[in-house]
Amino acid sequence: MRPSFSIGIEEEYQTIDPESRDLRSHIKTELLAKGKMRLEERVKAEMHQSVVEVGTRICSNIENAREDLYDLRRQMIHLAEEHGLTLVAGATHPFADWRTQDIYPDERYARVVEDLQMVARANLIFGLHVHIGIEDREAAIRLMNALRYFLPHLLALSSNSPFWLGSNTGLKSYRAKVFDKFPRTNIPDAFVSWNEFESFCNLLIKTNCMDNAKKIWWDIRPHPFFNTVEVRICDIPLRAEETIAIAALIQATACKLCKLHAINQDYRQYSRALLMENKWRAVRYGLDGKLIDFGLEEEVDERALIREYLDFVDDVVDELGSREAVASINRILETGSGADRQLKVHAENGGDLRAVVDYMAAETRAGLF
Q: For the chain, which terminal residue's Cβ has fewer other Cβ atoms within 10 angstroms, N or C?
């Protein structure tokens, strides 16, 4: 059965005080209630009270996803402004202190905090999750195994979290290092079959490691309740057009890998240990680093590797209707990731992190109005 390759996109936004530029809880406003009235289940709270999450509908192609995501961002920007807040897309806040941020009053989040303690309370980060419709569960496992190779490249493209607690961390995706304190994170091992994956999940449930498979927070996973493969490694980009470009690239990668499998040409798989070496390089250097080309057994500039990546998926983008969206990856290579641009604004404004927040807010709106 050919997968649908449908797309669903989830983004997590910051709610900001326009005066202090610090994070501010939206819970004392009607932002969430009005959001649910206007957008129904496409908007929901997250664990911290200064985080709000949106999710598109199930979209049959990237242009439908673009229309839905742009509408969600516009509406959330308006809702935030109506309640005296500014909406920002950034994977960490430049100077907010997680210790001053309250947890959303929900039994599910209370259980996570009870289980993980300070690790959960400190998890004040904002991500992008992309679901690709893969209806056959065995195909989902095969795709997860093969797609692991590309995860560091996707992280480098989306990297958008250079600051933490008022400091330049020296990393392009500090969000990744905050999140990997959680259990069951990072790039997963390969699985032989859906049955092996299911047995793994059942063992963890039986031994009280988790109550269900949604507590698996890997960088990629077969979703336990939807017929999708969910790519979770990405920082939320500044601009909506960047989110769409990355989502289109993920969809095209899934399609290409499935086509290769159909003609018995599966993409070569590498060990988790090797893939994690590339992930670290993406975390540290983003697009400016060198990742390992495991076939050549040498370092290669990341931008060159991503251009090879674009060539790899080029023969499927027309049938997916995503050539324009995938081509926008070249713009990210030219202008730099969100992390690169935040650091540039920081340097140009004498280290003023409030100016960085203002830039992030402006970029969050870019191309929408």
A: N
Instruction: Reply yes or no on whether the pLDDT at 316 is more than 80.
Output: yes
Residue type present at position 132: I
Integer distance in angstroms from the first to the last C-alpha of the chain?
Answer: 41
Banded pLDDT at 74 (limits 50, 70, 90): very high
- Reading the block at residue 95, the tokens are 């100077």
163 contacts 342 by C-beta, under 8 angstroms: yes
| Tokens found for residue 106 | 């929900």
Burial class (CB in 10 A: 0-12, 13-18, 19+), 323: middle
Q: How far apart are CA 98 and CA 110, in angstroms?
A: 16
What ranges in the chain are assigned the alpha helix state H? 31-39, 62-82, 107-116, 118-121, 137-147, 151-158, 174-179, 194-206, 240-262, 272-285, 302-313, 317-320, 323-327, 329-335, 338-348, 353-365
- Sign of the Cα pseudo-torsion (338, 344, 345, 347, in order): positive
Q: For residue 273, report the phi and psi dihedrals to the nearest 5 degrees.
A: -60, -40
The alpha carbon dihedral of 334, 340, 345, 350 has a sign of negative
Measured CA to CA, the distance from residue 92 to residue 71 in angstroms comes to 23
Q: Specify whether the CB–CB gap between 126 and 91 falls below 8 A.
A: yes
Q: Which amino acid is present at 272?
A: R
d(CA 258, CA 3) in angstroms, rounded, equals: 8
CA distances from 260 to 109, 154, 256, 359 (A): 41, 20, 6, 42
Reported as a single tens digit per residue, the pLDDT across 157-188 is 999 999 999 999 999 999 999 999 999 999 99
Q: Is 212 left (phi over 0), alpha (psi -120 to 50) or beta?
A: beta
User: What is the pLDDT at residue 49?
Assistant: 85
Q: What is the pTM of this model?
A: 0.96
- Tell me what the pLDDT averaged over the chain comes to: 95
Phi, psi of 131 (to 5 degrees): -100, 135
Closest among 17, 215, 206 to 120, alpha carbons compared: 215
Pairwise CA distance, residues 320 & 154, whole Å? 19
d(CA 243, CA 257): 21
Phi and psi of 266, rounded to 5°?
Answer: -55, 145
For residue 205, what pLDDT band results from cuts at 50, 70 and 90? very high
